[in-house]
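Q: what sequence does this backbone want?
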């Protein structure tokens, strides 16, 4: 129908507006051309096949059937008029909450074969509550970000603000976290230091950290499996506890909320009975 209306608009130099909610059509233009357009639309309607909806008989009344489950429908889409039950619509719409969906898979259309009309926002608001509407909006926004490569998330670790890279090729101040970031280096802005110098500093620091790590491990230090702080074990059993509070096994790195001793008494553990392995201490007989 939309294609035919566009042809009428071009032919008669009028503007046709469909007001779906009010079931109205507004034609704007010269009076005679508006009248001609009305006549053409009426003639076109006469040639259109009538919409036949599935129905069920309940007593003396005819009730439309949901096009999905074939039970009684209690809602008709305002765009195309096809009948659904609210439960099926809610279930259908809930499949669109997935934030990993792309734009095409996120499209919400009537499921009737050869219809594929997009659901109006008025339909979606009526069917979904505020919470679910927010979920759908979030999924829609994530799909939009996938298609617009110029829209990027803030570099800050805990910030979800979005910025447009083309408007900030070098640096930007985030409206969300109020911090300034270097776009090239992807870090908080390094005032007074060029990007080249900053990158050299990073490489030097990474090399120093690597050498320090190798030296620590050569001398018997091991990193805590949780906080990664290096720990030296000079004596005692293999059940360790870091200052961060986590308990862990010195041999295999197994972690426990506080105490790793039960790990050595567990017969399924690879370290069963090895609580003093490698230690200078001799367990009491």
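A:
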């Amino acid at each position: 129908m939309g294609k035919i209306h566009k042809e009428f608009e071009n032919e008669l130099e009028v503007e046709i507006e469909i007001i779906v909610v009010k079931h109205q059509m507004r034609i704007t233009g010269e009076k005679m051309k508006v009248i001609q357009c009305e006549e053409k639309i009426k003639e076109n309607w006469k040639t259109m096949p009538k919409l036949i909806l599935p129905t069920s008989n309940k007593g003396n009344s005819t009730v439309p059937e949901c096009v999905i489950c074939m039970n009684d429908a209690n809602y008709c889409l305002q765009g195309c008029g096809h009948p659904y039950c609210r439960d099926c619509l809610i279930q259908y719409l809930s499949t669109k909450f997935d934030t990993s969906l792309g734009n095409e898979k996120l499209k919400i259309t009537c499921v009737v074969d050869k219809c594929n009309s997009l659901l109006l926002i008025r339909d979606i608001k009526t069917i979904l509550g505020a919470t679910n509407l927010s979920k759908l909006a979030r999924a829609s926004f994530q799909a939009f970000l996938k298609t617009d490569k110029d829209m990027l998330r803030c570099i800050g670790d805990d910030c979800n603000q979005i910025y447009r890279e083309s408007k900030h090729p070098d640096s930007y101040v985030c409206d969300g976290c109020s911090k300034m970031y270097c776009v090239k280096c992807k870090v908080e802005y390094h005032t007074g230091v060029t990007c080249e110098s900053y990158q050299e500093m990073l490489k030097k620091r990474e090399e120093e950290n690597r050498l320090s790590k190798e030296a620590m491990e050569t001398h018997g230090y091991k990193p805590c499996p949780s906080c990664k702080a290096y720990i030296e074990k000079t004596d005692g059993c293999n059940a360790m506890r870091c200052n961060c509070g986590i308990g862990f096994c010195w041999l295999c790195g197994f972690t426990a909320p506080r105490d790793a001793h039960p790990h050595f008494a567990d017969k399924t553990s690879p370290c069963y009975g090895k609580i003093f392995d490698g230690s200078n201490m001799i367990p009491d007989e």
